[in-house]
Amino acid sequence: MTAAAQRFGLDPALFRPEAIDPETRAFVAELERTLAELPPIHSLPPEVTRQAREEGRGVWGPIQLVEEARSMTIPGPGGELPLRVFIPPEGVRAVYLHIHGGGWVLGRAHHQDPRNWHLARRLKAAVVSVDYRLAPEHPYPAAPDDCEAAALWVLEHGKREFGADTLLIGGESAGAHLSVVTLLRLRDRHGFRGAVAANLVYGVYDLRLTPSAANWGERPLVLTTQTMRWFVDHFVPPERRTDPDVSPIFADLTGMPPAIFTVGTLDPLLDDSLFMYSRWVAAGNDAELAVWPGGVHGFNLFPNDLARRANERIDAFLESQLQAAAR
Questions:
Q1: Which end of the chain offers a freer environment for a tag, N or C, measured as fewer CB atoms within 10 Å?
Q2: Are 147 and 116 in contact (CB under 8 A)?
Q3: Catalytic status, residue 315
Q4: What's the CA gap between 118 and 101, in Å, rounded?
Q5: Is 297 a catalytic residue?
Q6: Which residues of the chain have pLDDT under 70?
Q7: Residue 4: predicted pLDDT
Q8: What is the distance between the alpha carbons of residues 213 and 228, in angstroms, rounded to a whole number?
Q9: What is the reported pTM?
């Protein structure tokens, strides 16, 4: 890899088929076979897919709950807002606000207990996962309003509740999108630019669909073009999709925290991370881009070596930013 490629994370070799290791190649083939036998998400009512996930059916398997997690509610713009909280026994030096994925339509805060509990202990941070309202029952701006409210609550009450109010933020897919929207709202509406880091994992930042998403087609690797359109249509009408509060790729990104962008080469949202990373850096912000050969959408949530390595790099980035902020 050249020095420039090392700096910007765009080594052409990463995108070639031979870059995919044998374990990942076998995993992708098996995943594709499995998903080809299941009805596409966009062919089912949201409540059917939600129920299947709660019952542990589908490619994600049974939900693993961590007994150390606790549930609480705070006042939210739509009523009581549920949070799922993880407090490490070693003490708390920061709060990581986690925003789950699911296309603004699916997903719950308790679906990532093992990963959030790991982050709590690894970072010595209180992890607060937001159970924001879902579309189509609650379309835009319900989800970003809830995430903004949760972030403001952490900034106001984190010290008393957890012993720290140093803020990190992050999420996967729609959760990465909502993380960026929340950071922009904190800056523009509340004058806050003090977040330590952003963990942006295969996010979607242009809801018109970037070329990789629009051109992916229907190859069944978790997310397809039609499914992506289905998610976006539930969330926000077409006339709003160039609003920076909806598609943050259009936002002024000055004053954003250091960020790590993680994405796989077999993800329809690949361009979203490539484009947003470039805009993040061009706005004068620090960022890392981690591109993983053979990674599908959601790849870091599966039990394999590629996920382990990607998550270790995320952990190391967040730890380095916490150490830098403490100096």
A1: C
A2: no
A3: no
A4: 18
A5: yes
A6: 1-9
A7: 40
A8: 8
A9: 0.96
Give the C-alpha separation, 289 to 6, whole Å: 10
Catalytic status, residue 173: yes
Given the residues 267, 271, 272, 273, the one annotated as active site: 267
> pLDDT per residue over 296-306, tens digit each?
999 999 999 99
Specify which residues 129 forms β-bridges with: 84, 98
The position carrying tokens 């995108």 is: 15
Domain boundary assignment for the chain? 19-326
What is the C-alpha to C-alpha distance for residues 146 and 178, in angstroms, rounded to an integer? 10
Cβ–Cβ < 8 Å for 90, 124: yes
Residues 6+ apart with CB under 8 A from 28: 20, 221, 266, 294, 296
What stretch of H or E contains 306? helix 305-326
Query: What pLDDT does residue 8 have?
Result: 55
How far is Cα of residue 83 from the mean position of the Cα atoms in its chain? 16
CATH code of 19-326, in short, is 3.40.50.1820
Residue by residue, DSSP assigns 47-69 as HHHHHHHHTT-STT-S----TT-
For residue 151, give the nearest of 166, 173, 134, 172 by alpha carbon: 166
**Alpha-carbon gap, residue 83 to 99, rounded angstroms:** 10
Nearest to 299 by CA among 71, 18, 59, 1: 59
Exactly one of 129, 145, 173, 234 is catalytic; name it.
173
